[in-house]
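Weekly puzzle thread! Below is a chain. First person to post its structure in token form gets bragging rights.
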Amino acid sequence: MSALLLRHARVEDSPDPADIRIRDGRIETIGQDLQPPDGAEVLDCAGRVVIPGLIEAHLHPDKALLDSVRPNPTGTLADAIRVTAELKAGFTRNDVRARAERVLRMCVLNGTTTVRAHPDIDPVAGLVGFEVLLELRESWADLVTLQVVAFPQEGVFRAPGTEKLLRKALDAGADAIGGCTYSEASVADCHRQVELVLDLAAEYGVPADLHADFADDCGDERFALAEFIAARTVARGLSGRVTLGHATSLGGRPPAERRTVLAGLAAAGVAVVPLPATDLFLGGRGDDTAVRRGIAPVRELWEAGVLTACATNNIRNAFTPYGTGDVLEAALLLARLAHLSGPADLRRVLRMVTYDAARVIGLPEADYGVREGAIADLVVLHTNDYDSVLLERPIRTAVVKSGRVVSRSTFSAELDSSPVTRRRA
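Winning reply:
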């Protein structure tokens, strides 16, 4: 494999620049005045900050970029599901591949080196999106690591035949099993879906990643499943292998109840991934006064010890008509929504799309980060100030995947501050 030396790199929040020597796809040494390996490319970082590759812990590439085809007429979750279901009937492999590759290109250029993708699996879409993402997992492996989740957007019991398709996807090599509890018609079926998803996780030895509790409050008990999921996770010995996406209704519970639920999630080792762009866009649609903008209670999740990441979710479709493929944009939005500010908070939010996200999706600790021995998935940022990374979302000067520079960006800005001579009339 090729070798690389990053010269004069500011390793995350380190006060002084250092060299990073990379060989055979891994960080070999970090130190001063290192000699490049034979034949190595040398990249002068000029004191710029280097962070680990960004991680998109929850993304739907198969249904991205559909908003220009058919937008959401009401902005509600129900219409987002309905509109997308209608469009899925016309999905082809070429269509899904073209949109998914466009999104992956956005992500890589913005410094993402790992994506957990959730393609829809149901009797309408079949396995089209899933199979395309499996193909892209191989063909894009030199640019980005893809984890592919078998995801039942339309529910399981509400869409007969879905369980069989999920098993086919797991047999074909899905990296995780997904769930969408609130798509079921009753609380009883929501419970049945949780049981099935966790059973499949245990049977196939894969993690489970469920969309759950995605509402403004818990008025409908289908959106109050966090404690049930935590209990069933413990019962199956799946601690550390279950994730909840959205979980906005946690914030709608009374404080004492919320503390109990969060403690249960922490004890069960269930992670939570807020998806702020989607949560903001779809939330509060039934309110006509003091419109709510639901988000999982991030600071309380931290304080309870719940592993928490952040992700983009959807890009320019009926669920979220925005997005550039930059997960730092989602992280900054989360900070704004969750009342997080100051260097300590913002550093922790940055971890939600790096180190904490890596833990959520199960990357081995020794393989991730700017540390000796780790896989060399790195981003060189156009800044020498670590604490400006989230606030400024600087240009990704270079993106390194497994020790190879896969993306380069240049940036130049000039302010003309020379005095202006004014002529008198």
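Puzzle host: Confirmed. Bonus trivia for everyone else. The chain has two domains: 4-52+369-408, 54-367.
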